[in-house]
Amino acid sequence: MDQEPTIKDHLPYPYNQDLSGVLRRMNRRTPFSRKRLANDPVTAAYVLSGMRLIRRHLGPGAQRVLNDPEDENSVGRPLLSFLSQRAIVAQLADNPAPFARAGTTATLRCSWRSHSDYIADLLSFGLWSLHEPAMYDSRIAPDCERLLDGPEFVEAAHRLCYYDLTTVVDNPTFRLELIAAAAAEGDEVIQEALAANHHGAMEPWKQVYQEMFLARGLRLRPDVSPDDFAGMLAALASGYALRRIGNPGSVGIDTEKQRCIFGTAALALLLGCVERVAEGGGAVAESVEDAVRALVYGLLAKDGEQAAPPARPREADRPSTAGGVRPASTQESPSAASLDETRSFFTHLDRLCDEGQPPEVRQAATALRDRLSA
Questions:
Q1: CA-to-CA distance for 224 and 210, rounded, in angstroms?
Q2: What is the pLDDT of residues 210-239, one digit of tens each?
Q3: How many CA atoms lie within 13 A of 197 on its CB side?
């Protein structure tokens, strides 16, 4: 006989699911009691309450309450509540010399019309171009030069990515940026501070990239702008930094070799978004999508023709059913010229199969293509 539905069963998804594997710190001594409490409808109500508060304060559709109804910039920022006026004044006592070590909330209020204005200025300062000073760091300058000239391009790129990632992870500004980004929706002050920070962080690097392309005879593919390229690299850095902070073991950093996975990702991005300038000043106008198609499907045909199919793997290249690799054939591999001739032949054969050809030609060409493809 089927069991009667419980209150838990009537809750919406995912609150009606078994939450014992998710809520693993319930205040009970035995596993049975912890599982029971994790799936109690009252527990689900507390979880829902927390989720609703997160949505209310962080979004999407976050509710913004003005501390001063007459000041549209006095948006309350609960995530930054640790920066209360009293906390700021108390922190003055720990300031190093020659900074002032004494103050009052009254003097703080005299300097900023509202605490919201102070928070806005603090965000603008804290998010102010964390990367730009690093451009003049003694660690950065030599490797920036190596990007422009010399044989150590790859090594220099790895070191620069290592410096960038470790700088972001070790700097409290990035953590402030995460909090600010979570609370940015509906708050123009935070959005403007974040936008100014991103612009200031990328502009110096965009200049380095442009000089590097010019010096190395490279250019971005036609569907990638300098802003796109700099933005993608910045997104990679931020993503790896976020993962490193949340789960250090997921993003390894080799301090001895000064390398990290961000360097490999940056080189892969460069490989996909950049092409070499052709002789005579022109360029192979190939988009990122075309480059991927060439990688997956083989060489691209010219003048809008259909791309030739990739060569089938040789029998010697296929893994054997016994788990090993079949020994290589004694026959020599075909030359590049013969492969080009084969592709050209199949391209011409495809043209003969088009609807525009006479029926008898199309029928014969189709039959030949089917036999050759079998």
A1: 13
A2: 999 999 989 999 899 999 999 999 999 999
A3: 23
Contacts of 243 by beta carbon, 8 Å cutoff, 6+ apart: 250, 251
Query: In the prediction, which pLDDT does 79 show?
Result: 63
Q: 32-44, pLDDT tens digit by residue?
A: 998 999 889 888 8
Q: What is the pLDDT of residue 330?
A: 41
Least Cα distance to 76 among 66, 91, 61, 88 occurs for 66
Planar angle of CA 155, 161, 163, nearest 5 degrees: 100
Preceding amide of 334 cis, omega within 30: no
> Which pLDDT score is estimated for 325?
42
CA angle (122 as vertex; 119, 123 as ends), nearest 5: 85
Chain length of the chain:
374
The reported pTM is 0.62
Q: Are 353 and 361 in contact (CB under 8 A)?
A: no
